[in-house]
Design goal:
With 445 residues, the chain is of the alpha/beta class. Strands 5-6-7-8-9 form a 5-stranded parallel beta sheet, sandwiched between helices. The chain has a 3-stranded mixed beta sheet with strand order 1-3-4. It has a single domain, classed as TIM Barrel, CATH 3.20.20.210. It has 17 helices and 10 strands.
Length: 445
């Protein structure tokens, strides 16, 4: 664990309020520069809750408990997740609904979708709003989990020449990355870039505090007995450059790519362990964003040998895998690169199902069409897409990933999606239970 980060050396002693000129004073010290950053940057001070806020939070939690009891399903969300995680698919009443809300939609729910709050700014400036937003959102939409999303991908906190800007609807914030691929290892050796410490660096203490308070309030008011927390440690290796530059580096200089990525392995490991220090692996869920091949499996194989340590070092977690990984996921399963399973974002669901069932991993694919439809299409179209996902994916290892990330997702569409995966998912599961062996793993590979 690193030493405490010194405060920005301002001659008048005033706190940093996001001025770029002030940020330059901190440039190259411990974290990168931020524009329009939080008033507390870079040293988070946990805020207190007022009596009225505590009452508000208690009300949200009470409604969450009431929702579960009124739905009167055979399993509570916690019981449903445990059965899924333990591969007891025949004990399920329906597929688990993995609510990938990030922080944006919950923040929009907090202001009644009036567009008054600006999620990309306000949740980072005042994470107390994030605590209330996630509870409010779950109380309204009755999803199977609460999903506080990481405040950073680590690019700014690495230090060096990164410049971050907090904008209204980005999750987390927008960053112009440090991007000098050919000299990155020199900058690591000279200390311009440093291993991340989630307990001290940048936005991480604020995010960990938000997760900790969510669990604390949910336990205090009974909601945690019924609903798990889906925490995120979106730690995409060594984000010392943009994804585009990382892909180029993998093609041009795979040895340097592997070296940079190996250096970055400390980040997802320490972040993932920090999350499990707060959450309970027997109760909650953790996902880690993962782009291990950057589109080129053969050139990524040297790094994937190092990548396995993440799976060994952190208790069971789900990978959130971007890009179409059709050419990679079977190798990753064989090579020990997949933990409990994956939330795929581009790999076709039918293919993902075939591979992950073969290696006894949990799975789903949330398509761009599903994400987009939540914001742009009718409830009827969202019902069709939800049913199609369940029809294609249902079987041992499947869960339904809720496409609830787009900031402009419509209330009526979210309600239609939740109602459909709950009711149609039960119908599909009842059908599978009548077929011998339909909810049992194929022979392990």
């Amino acid at each position: 664990m690193s030493k405490e980060i010194p405060k920005i050396p301002l001659p008048d002693g005033k706190p940093y309020l996001g001025d770029e000129k002030v940020a330059r004073l901190y440039y190259g010290n411990r974290v990168g520069r931020v524009i329009d950053g939080p008033p507390w940057w870079p040293n988070f001070i946990p805020p207190a809750f007022s009596e009225e806020e505590l009452w508000e939070i208690e009300r949200y939690c009470a409604q969450m408990v009431k929702n579960v009891k009124e739905l009167n399903e055979p399993l509570t969300p916690v019981e449903r997740w445990r059965a899924t995680r333990e591969f007891r698919f025949g004990d399920l009443d329906r597929p688990y609904g993995m609510a990938t809300t990030f922080n944006i939609l919950p923040m929009r729910a907090l202001d009644c979708f009036s567009d008054s709050l600006k999620p990309g700014i306000d949740v980072h400036w005042y994470p107390k709003l994030g605590v209330k937003a996630h509870l409010c959102f779950n109380a309204k939409f009755k999803m199977d989990c609460v999903n506080p999303y990481t405040f950073s991908y680590g690019d700014t906190e690495l230090g060096g020449a990164a410049v971050a800007k907090f904008t209204e609807y980005t999750a987390p914030y927008w960053t112009q990355l440090y991007s000098d691929p050919e000299h990155v290892m020199d900058d690591i050796k000279t200390g311009k870039l440093h291993p991340l410490d989630p307990y001290h660096d940048g936005t991480y203490p604020a995010y960990l505090w938000m997760v900790r308070k969510l669990k604390e309030f949910m336990k205090k008011h009974g909601a945690y007995d019924y609903i798990p927390i889906l925490g995120t440690a979106c730690a995409m290796g060594a984000l010392t450059m943009s994804l585009k530059d990382m892909i180029k580096l993998n093609k041009r200089n795979p040895e340097l790519y592997a070296e940079v990525q190996k250096w970055g392995l400390n980040y997802p490991i320490t972040f993932g362990r920090a999350m499990w220090d707060i959450l309970d692996p027997d109760h909650d869920i953790l996902w880690i964003c993962d782009f291990p091949t950057y589109g080129n499996l053969e050139q990524a194989k040297p790094y994937l040998e190092q990548h396995k340590i993440i799976v060994k070092a952190i208790p069971q977690f789900l990978h959130m895998i971007g890009f179409d990984q059709t050419n990679a996921i079977e190798y990753m399963c064989q090579n020990g690169n997949i933990s409990l399973g994956a939330i795929e974002l581009a790999t076709p669901l039918e293919f993902a199902k075939k591979v992950y069932q073969k290696y006894h991993k949990l799975y789903d694919t949330i398509t761009n069409e599903q994400y987009s439809a939540a914001a742009t299409e009718t409830p009827e179209r969202n019902v069709e897409l939800t049913k199609a996902n369940i029809d294609t994916g249902a079987g041992p290892g499947y869960f339904f990933g809720v496409p609830a990330t787009d900031p402009w997702a419509k209330i009526e569409n979210l309600e239609a999606i939740v109602k459909t995966y709950r009711e149609y998912g039960k119908q599909k599961w009842d059908e599978l239970k009548k077929k011998p062996g339909a909810l049992e793993w194929p022979q392990a590979q």
